[in-house]
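Dear colleagues,

As part of the handover before I leave the project, I'm documenting each prediction I ran so the next person doesn't have to rerun anything. This entry is a single chain, and its sequence is reproduced below.
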Amino acid sequence: TIEYLTSVYLEVVYQAAWWNYNGYFLNLNGRICLEGLLLFGVGSCLVTYILGPIIGNFLDKINKKFKVVICIILVGLIAFDFYASSLILIREKGYPLLLKIVI
């Protein structure tokens, strides 16, 4: 449902189809398909039940101060990426509302 509604929203707002599953088995208007559902479903289960506990055990062994430093660095990188991407959008597309939010 989320992928289908996202596809409709993006097509209405940007007048472009961002993906097209028309050649895939059991597709619904080219917006979603069974193959994608199965791949994401199985992948999500693998990440949640196999990779998640492995990463959790690894993170439990790391010093708390080091985790805080890494977290601060990652948040800073995400904030910088948001700011830089916003400036590019303002410069290239001229989004005045975004200009008020960023600056």
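The chain has a mean pLDDT of 88. The CA atoms of residues 90 and 97 lie 9 Å apart.

All the best with the project,
I.
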